[in-house]
């Protein structure tokens, strides 16, 4: 893909400009150029993992993930555009059947608070054990592409938190119907930008003796929603799990919900 005098150069902007536009006119096959955005995407994710989680991702691992997506056909233009759509949270989602009975055994409701103008998103959870004792959790992390990304990351965080608390059987509850449908209908391949998160989901799922995800109405998820919004409003990265509400939450007007 070398173009003497044009690519590669010492300018990052010039290199990207060449890869995304002029290279096609120079005869570089589309089968190669179409993969460039995916490589950039996973390089960016690896950079964030290193910066915020201390996780090292080798160049070979980046190539392997991209290759898996290509085999699945995830690099098709339609799927790339689909992955970039910023969905309005909870809008235009079809209603799922609702049940009036609470699940037996421990349950954990979770929610995410995402806004396109904020650098961080917030997550919250309320874990209720078999004896009715509650544990509250909240966290913030770097904002993902869409509200759906935030909801899935909130689920992953809730799963990790419950495992750390030694709960090996759990029903996770969310008011995000889209997330439930994607997992229930096994439509994960339609969301290539979430491939890494879904792989982590299946890994965490395998660590439970029993684990399920179900939909609850938004009106039944007010507690987790308040924790998520309160976390995002703090504007800093943190994680909190405790049987007591965090002091910043206890001072809000939402105590009546608890």
UniProtKB/TrEMBL annotation:
GO terms for molecular function: nucleic acid binding; RNA-DNA hybrid ribonuclease activity. It comes from the Eukaryota. CDD domains: RNase_H_like. Residues 110-230 form the RNase H type-1 domain. Pfam families: RVT_3. This is RNase H type-1 domain-containing protein. It comes from Brassica cretica (Mustard).
């Amino acid at each position: 893909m070398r173009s003497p005098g044009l690519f590669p150069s010492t300018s990052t902007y010039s290199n990207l400009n060449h890869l995304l536009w002029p290279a096609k006119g120079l005869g570089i096959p589309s089968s190669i150029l179409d993969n460039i955005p995916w490589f950039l995407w996973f390089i960016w994710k690896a950079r964030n993992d290193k910066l915020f989680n201390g996780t090292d991702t080798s160049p070979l691992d980046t190539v392997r993930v991209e290759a898996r997506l290509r085999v699945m056909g995830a690099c098709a233009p339609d799927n790339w555009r689909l992955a970039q759509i910023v969905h309005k949270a909870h809008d235009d989602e079809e209603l799922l059947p609702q049940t009036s009975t609470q699940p037996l055994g421990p349950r954990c409701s979770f929610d995410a608070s995402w806004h396109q103008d904020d650098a961080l998103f917030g997550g919250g959870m309320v874990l209720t054990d078999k004896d009715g004792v509650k544990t509250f959790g909240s966290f913030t992390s770097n904002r993902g592409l869409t509200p759906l990304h935030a909801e899935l990351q909130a689920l992953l965080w809730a799963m990790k938190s419950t495992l750390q608390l030694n709960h090996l059987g759990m029903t996770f509850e969310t008011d995000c119907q889209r997330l439930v449908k994607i997992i229930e209908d096994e439509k994960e391949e339609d969301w290539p930008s979430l491939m890494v998160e879904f792989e982590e989901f299946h890994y965490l799922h395998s660590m439970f003796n029993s684990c399920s995800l179900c939909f609850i109405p938004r009106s039944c998820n007010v507690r987790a929603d308040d924790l998520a919004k309160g976390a995002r409003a703090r504007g800093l990265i943190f994680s909190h799990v405790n049987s007591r509400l965090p002091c910043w939450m206890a001072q809000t007007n939402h105590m009546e919900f608890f």
